[in-house]
Amino acid sequence: MQNDQQPIWFSTPNLEHMNAMCKNTACEAMGIQITEVGHDFIRGTMPADQRTFQPFGLVHGGANVVLAETLGSVAANLLVDNSKFYCVGQEVNANHVRGVRSGKVTGTATLWHAGKSSQVWNIELHDDQGKLTCISRLTMAVVPIPGSK
């Protein structure tokens, strides 16, 4: 994490823990990994290979959405006190602007809005050459844990 700005996270992010949570999930099957946490963003990667391709040899749009929602969901849950709240996806959209045939896709989630009951995250995906391949917006519901104060 960068030290020049105050982090937005409620709890201290731990890359090892975040990636361990992906064990036995779609993220593991697709090769998604969280790679970096900054003071106000989360970054991760997904391979462009047979696990993520559609029949024409391009990264599947649904795979892009899985990467985007994963990054936004992890970030959203780091923003709240997990003893009192958890965050779940409420709506996601994606615009696929460039196909990816090889290498990896790198996504970066940044916060647009944090309210009492919802959050909105912007997730941009880029190819290995740094070209924008997909832009996604994710709305997360902030749900109180019953019985928590």
TrEMBL record:
Keywords: Hydrolase
Organism: Limnobacter thiooxidans
MF (Gene Ontology): 1,4-dihydroxy-2-naphthoyl-CoA thioesterase activity
Gene3D superfamilies per UniProt: Hotdog Thioesterase
CC annotations in GO: cytosol
Cited NCBIfam families: unchar_dom_1
Domain named Thioesterase: residues: 56-134
Xref: SUPFAM superfamilies: Thioesterase/thiol ester dehydrase-isomerase
Classification via Pfam families: 4HBT
Family: Belongs to the thioesterase PaaI family.
This protein's name: Hotdog fold thioesterase
